[in-house]
Amino acid sequence: MSQFKSEFINIMVERGFYNQCTNEQGFDDYLYECEKNGKPAIGYLGSDPTGDSLHVGHIVPLMMLRWFQKCGHKPLALVGGATARIGDPSGKDKLRPFLSEEQLAHNNEGLRKSFSKFLKFGSGPTDAEMVDNWDWFKDINYLSFLRDIGTYYSVNRMLTMDSVKSRLEREQPMSFLEFNYMLLQGYDFCELYQKYGCRAQIAGSDQWGNITSGTELGRRKYDVELFGFTSPIITDSNGKKMGKSEGNAVWINEEKLSSYDYYQYFRNIGDAEVGKCLRIYTDLPIDEIRRLETLKDQEINEAKKILAFEATKICRGIDEANNAQQTAIQVFEQGAAGGDLPQINGAAGMGILDAFVEIGFVSSKGEARRLIKQNGLKLNDTPLSDENYRLTAQDFIDGQAKISQGKKKHGLIKLG
């Protein structure tokens, strides 16, 4: 029996997305009334354009917004062109570097691309819209902002917020600029309410203080109840935050990471995380997920392949998912060199250390040397023992040589 009246919250609970809500019953009632009357609720997810792509760590609230849209509601994707000029202090030890106007514009386009992979944009009643808070902050008068907004904020309460308190407890400096961040995000929420009728913010749990900044401002200044709804921080069985692969971000945009590497990230998820990841990173029906997460031993690998394919299909499309899957079969099951592996150009005489650095498997020649001593690097599936080895014409089979780090990282050196 469903715990909630609204379809959206029931899905969030069932799939493991629900962490905290500012008013659970009130939000449920609001969504249910919207669903019953066929009038979409409006909710937003914000992301500052500090980079030109989102990564796997951002997908959890993004998938929440995807389900929000699937339930007949309208998502707003907010890029923080203004707030990126300050930097969110949440979870940070120091002030973020300032970005140029050109870099911010470039990053905005990258975020639009990331959002578009998960949401349907358009002009329909439930189609997503992308908005930029720079549009309303760029002409604001500072004294007017202090008078109209600052009067609703208590410094005493701001000092108790995790983003501020943790920095002070660690005795790490926090600029007045960063201290203003929660005012700006609170203002965003109210601006979206006034412009679009937006009453919900969806985010990760680390944004709780910024979210409640907006709900409080809405209540005190506009006499409206706004709702905050957060996801938990997703961790693996070791308690490590998911979203990184051997120290590197798993990027959503293909310019930053190949579809094959994206597929392999999910294919290599630990056994204990398979059910959790199927619920969060795919659209598969919950009954199918329950079946897959009961698989044991070798059969769990079939569930991992389905997870990798379905996650890649959402992010990169079905053609890229098929290509990545086929490459993985060629590399791991048929022993061949798949066409979607990362590639570099090379020739006879190329130093093997240079090859591993250039393809990005190691950050330095020193790291490559250490791995060779541990039998961790291979050329055409044969472990390397000579750190000074240079490629010969015989290493290129059908115009390519295969290099590998461990059992899961493979790449090609193309002759030419």
Overview of the molecule:
- With 416 residues, this protein is of the alpha/beta class.
- The protein has 18 helices and 13 strands.
- It has helices spanning 7-15, 24-37, 59-70, 101-116, 134-137, 142-148, 155-158, 162-169, 176-179, 181-196, 208-222, 259-267, 274-281, 286-292, 300-316, 318-332, 352-359, 365-373, and strands at 20-21, 42-47, 74-79, 129-132, 200-204, 227-231, 244-245, 248-249, 343-346, 377-379, 382-383, 400-405, 409-415.
- Helix 12 (259-267) crosses helix 16 (318-332) and helix 15 (300-316) packs antiparallel against helix 16 (318-332).
- The longest helix is centred in the C-terminal third of the chain and has 17 residues, at 300-316.
Q: Name the assembly state.
A: single chain
The outline comes out as globular
Helix content: 40-55%
Count of strand segments: 13
Strand order of the largest sheet: 1-6-5-2-3-4
Total number of helical segments?
A: 18
- pLDDT average, as an integer? 88
The largest pleated sheet is described as: 6 strands, mixed
Structural class: alpha/beta
Rg over CA atoms, rounded to whole Å, is 24 Å
Q: Unreliable segments (pLDDT under 50, ≥5 consecutive)?
A: none
